Amino acid sequence: MTTYLDFEKPIAELEGKIAELRHLPNSGDVDIAEEVMRLQDKAHKQIRATYAKLTPWQRVQVARHAERPHAQAYIDRLITDYTPLAGDRAFGEDAAIVGGMGRLQGRSIVVLGQQKGDDTESRIKHNFGMARPEGYRKAQRLMRLADRFKLPVLTLVDTPGAYPGIEAEARGQAEAIASSIETCLGLGVPLVSVVIGEGGSGGALAIASSDRVYMLENSVYSVITPEGCASILWRNNANAQDAAEAMKVTAADLKKLDVIDEVIPEPMGGAHRAPDETIDVVGRVVGEAIAELAKLDGDTLRQRRQDKFLAMGKKGL
Amino acid sequence: MNWLTNFVRPKLRALVARKETPDNLWVKCPKCEQMLFTRDWEANQEVCNHCGHHMRLRPLKRLPHLFDEGKYELHPLPRVNADPLKFRDTKRYDARLKEAQAKAEGTTDALVVASGLMGSRLSIVALLDFGFMGGSMGTAVGEGLVMAADLAVARKAPLIVFSASGGARMQEGILSLMQLTRTTIAVRKVKEAGLPYIVVLTDPTTGGVSASFAMLGDVHIAEPDAIIGFAGPRVIQDTIRQELPPGFQRSEYLLEHGMVDAVVHRHKLRETLIRMVSLFMDPLVVDNRPLAVTSSR
Q1: What fold characterizes domain B57-280?
Q2: Nearest CA-CA partner of A197 in A102, A72, A51
């Protein structure tokens, strides 16, 4: 069953009515069939109208939608011969970051993604996509492995942020993120990232200091959650909407700032309404990017990656 | 006029006025609450003369204690797009920034870059200023660190960074986050040139600064009792709803957990830095000590 967001109430009402009519005993009735068609058309138009003018805060909600496809869904659909790899070889295995080897359109790659989980049990297992230091160290291990075998790396970003906890601090969360960024920058192989949901601060950037960074149309990427920003700058996290607006967290704004390379459009009504279609579009875009980047040698890749980030900040809104 | 107006009144005034001046004359140690004579405290590099507590030392106060004969040159930060998002919370960001600059007396953002001789060797020093908008890192700080790295590489000098920051500057949104990558690029340039990159972590170093250049040093030194970590203590407490262990995220805790090489008293920093850099950069020095006499049998 679809979970509707606050602002989707009119859509929920229409789709509710459609479901009711469909469950009527005499649903073979021509009048009812026509009414269903009419309502479906109306719902369609309502979705289109709503999603054509989402506010930044509404996009934050879409980006966090529980039914939005998560990293594992992308891996399952896009990667053949998927071979998961585990552990940081130092402390443990962190299920908040899943990854391994496999083939994208026939090409052997290393894939990594923050996995939020799809139900309560898996959300807890994956810690809601909030990685601990061992997660970032595992990411580094897999990136280095890719470098050694000259395999491109694909990272799928979807996290509220790195996990803030006592043990995470004790094991050096800050160092784990910092060295993960350093590892990204040192790679001599193509590194392509897609923000598929939430790009939460350093925890996201740790695996996204990349040659190409794409964002799905309704994903968000920010230095701090809107709630966090609001509680610091407005001293009230009820101002999260204002913070989402002021911080410029949407894909379209980040493209204008040249912080990301491209926005990947989502099916009407958001990725959660058509997960397979969304994933296929992402697959096509990253496949092309990797094929293009694979022609460049390691030094060129590193140099261009570095130049891209150094050029950021010159352009404002 | 009599002695009352000429003599007693000024004395009375002085008595009253004195109540308004102790701010300048005396400083209270936040740790032991001892009142310290400002002049003594400043001469002591703002370390409590009583309990040894290291208070937050701003860059311009620290610089004279680092370089030979206290002589150094300041390098102004590159000009940047100051308010790229036209950010506004309860106040406009450009107004906040101007206010901070007006109070800062000469520095333009939360970073100061200086060069000078340390142990007769040209050294580049970049210091974050917690007194400037919480030492927060935006484009100007990032650009300043890139400049400092480029200076170090061009002059074949070591780069020493003093960190003090609450994290990324939210008012620059995603561009402040991108400084994590940009400053890491700066660090890589120094490392690739084979030059030492030393970080001195001071109170406090958290958020985006700790998650980038501040944790990537060849060597990490921490001042005693500084708060160093990724998430701030309050965020952690709100998340886990547990008491934090005593000493959590303090320098000594980081030393114990393998995140820093040494906790060094502020008075020993200069000599420690000079010795470390020399060990990296002067692989062989003349050892003038007489050879130990070995007894035959």
Answers
A1: 2-enoyl-CoA Hydratase; Chain A, domain 1 (3.90.226)
A2: A72
